[in-house]
Design a protein that fits this description.
Elements (H helix, E strand, L loop, with lengths): L3 E6 L3 H13 L4 E8 L15 H8 L4 H7 L3 E3 L1 E5 L6 E4 L12 H7 L14 H8 L16 E3 L2 H14 L3 E4 L2 E6 L5 E6 L4 E3 L2 E4 L16 E3 L8 E8 L10 E6 L2 E7 L3 E8 L6 H11 L12 E2 L3 E3 L3 E2 L2 E3 L5 E2 L7 H15 L13 H26 L7 H8 L4 H13 L12 H10 L16 H21 L3 H8 L5
Parallel strand pairs: 1-2, 1-11, 2-7, 4-14, 11-20
Antiparallel strand pairs: 3-6, 4-5, 8-9, 9-10, 12-18, 13-16, 13-17, 14-15, 15-16, 18-21, 19-20
Helix pairs in contact: 1-6, 1-8, 5-13, 8-9
The structure holds flavin-adenine dinucleotide.
């Protein structure tokens, strides 16, 4: 069996996640795995909120949860609280609302039975939302009747170090230098990369994890950037940190707070809170954005705000081209409104692990079937996440500025328009099997941002009224009791991070 020499260029989150996954899951296929990282260029240093899929990724790689949490100052995350996006704050939880009854979605049943229900608010039928509101959570608590998932908030720099240590223990070759040149074979495959010290590194497959530079993928023939800024108009972020005063103030959710020209995030870690102010430079100057932050956070000084990060929303037409696979920011970018970039890294890695060929020929004229399949799958991933993010902007209940006026009136992709139209007309949510955001996620945003459905499932009226009311009542009370009986989140964090106050 042939073995591959794989070169990962980039040592940010994407580079080290890719390296560790290949070392752990493809060790029989690897001859060598080299990671080249430029200290001079550094990594983007943000990317701290995740979604629950990261847990499965860690499990697949045999990562110990407690070791990971301690090493990265991580906290648990049960969802995202959106503020100012709808008439009142709402939480997008990592779990279902209620339970379907006789095959009819719970939200449709509740709508029909509002007058006989203990609460008309669908949020009261979600255990993760109840836990967020009461600030309760322990990963060790199990519930007989309810299930939901959780994710983490993590320190991005510490996460990269944590992964790097494991890669090096497994024999990864680590080169700390900058790639200054690239040599190609006649068919466009990369033959080698040259470092600034003059040394060349050859490889069969190159993983481009060079961040926004997209150093290896972008120059490949036929690769173009598909720009989605007309749908997601924010283009600048100013990150900053604020201290965590008290463990009791740490919440088990990310906050996303809309403002006149975009939104800002709050990601509570065990050691600090990561913040970022995202806006569209077409509508707001950076100078004014900095003033706005200092006005909202009067204890901060101008020098506490990090340099701005500018980004272009969209993705490259191919994420795999010839013997280059781009993973992370080098493949495209979608803003962190739903914490999806690390998920997209994970999806790319798992697809690569599954599709990695035994031989990568430098004379083959046609793309590999694996390359075509990878691009098909990743394009679908990018587009389904894109549509979900656009929904937030398009249906936001803000018209406070020309920015939000633009969002309200902008055209949207046909795939999203279909989803909204179907929900409005029937209460049904179109769900594709390979989509990362399933029905409860869409429902959270529709409901939270006042997108109303006019008609319910016609089979509802045939359900026995009393029986349905009993079931709704039971669900409601069991969720409230389960939430009350769960340990305080602060106690869980104190137990996990014994250095907290
Ligand atoms: C404002 C903002 C907020 C974000 N928030 C979230 C979030 O909450 N959740 C989430 O999931 N994602 C988030 N992301 C995305 C997340 O930050 C990235 O997906 C993640 O950090 C991976 O980045 P990366 O490894 O692709 O790139 P980087 O971190 O930029 O790493 C690039 C690496 O390539 C190296 N490199 C570059 N050029 C060369 C060269 N010539 N030679 C050698 N090495 C080179 C660099 O030194 C570095 O090591 C956010 C992104 C932004 C911009």
């Amino acid at each position: 069996m042939n073995k591959l020499n794989i070169v990962v260029v980039g040592g940010g989150t994407a580079g080290w996640m890719s390296a560790l996954a290949l070392l752990k899951l493809k060790k029989n296929t690897l001859a060598t795995l080299t990671v080249i990282e430029s200290q001079r260029i550094g990594s983007v240093g943000v990317g701290e909120a995740t979604i629950p899929t990261i847990k499965a990724f860690h499990q697949a790689l045999g990562i110990d949860e407690q070791a990971f949490i301690r090493a990265t100052n991580a906290t648990y995350k049960l969802g995202i609280q959106f503020e100012n996006w709808g008439p009142s704050p709402y939480i997008h939880p990592f779990g279902e609302y209620g339970k379907s009854i006789a095959g009819i979605d719970f939200h449709q049943v509740l709508k029909h039975h509002v007058n006989n229900s203990p609460s008309q608010n669908i949020d009261d039928y979600s255990l993760p939302i109840a836990l967020c509101k009461l600030n309760k959570f322990s990963p060790n608590t199990t519930y007989q009747e309810h299930s939901f998932a959780y994710a983490y908030h993590l320190d991005a720099k510490k996460y990269a170090v944590f992964l790097q240590q494991q890669c090096q223990a497994l024999g990864a070759v680590h080169i700390s230098d900058t790639v200054s040149d690239i040599s190609h074979h006649a068919n466009g495959h990369i033959q080698s990369v040259t470092l600034s010290n003059g040394k060349s590194i050859t490889g069969d497959l190159f993983i481009d994890c060079t961040g926004f530079k997209s150093l290896l993928l972008r120059p490949q023939k036929e690769v173009t950037f598909e720009n989605w800024q007309h749908w997601l108009p924010s283009d600048t972020a100013i990150p900053f940190a604020t201290p965590t005063q008290n463990t009791a103030d740490i919440r088990p959710y990310t906050r996303s707070i809309a403002h006149d020209y975009g939104w800002r995030w709050e990601i509570p870690l065990a050691s600090r809170t990561g913040n970022g102010y995202i806006f569209s430079s077409q509508y707001l100057s950076e100078e004014q954005a900095r003033k706005n932050i200092l006005h909202e956070f009067p204890k901060l000084k101008p020098e506490d705000l990090r340099p701005s990060i500018t980004f272009k929303t969209g993705r490259y037409s191919h994420n795999w081209k010839n013997n280059v696979v781009a993973i992370g920011l080098s493949a495209g970018f979608l803003e962190p409104l739903e914490s999806t970039s690390i998920y997209l890294i994970q999806a790319a890695i798992m697809n690569l692990v599954e599709l990695l060929p035994e031989v990568i020929s430098t004379t083959q004229p046609e793309p590999l079937v694996q390359e075509l399949e990878f691009n098909l799958r990743m394009n679908r991933e990018w587009e389904t996440v894109r549509d979900f993010l656009i929904l937030h902007y398009k249906c936001a209940n803000l018209s406070s500025s020309p920015f939000w006026e633009y969002c309200k009136h902008m055209d949207i992709p046909a795939t999203l328009a279909k989803k909204i139209a179907l929900y409005k007309s029937s209460g049904s949510i179109l769900e594709n099997i390979d989509e990362i955001f399933l029905q409860p996620s869409w429902l959270a945003v529709f409901n939270g941002q006042n997108v109303e459905s006019t008609q319910g499932n016609i089979r509802i009226s045939a359900l026995p009224k009393n029986k349905v009311s009993d079931m709704i009542n039971h669900l409601y009370h069991s969720i409230q009791v389960s939430a009350q009986q769960t340990p305080d989140y602060a106690a869980t964090l104190l137990q996990t991070h014994n250095n907290l106050k």
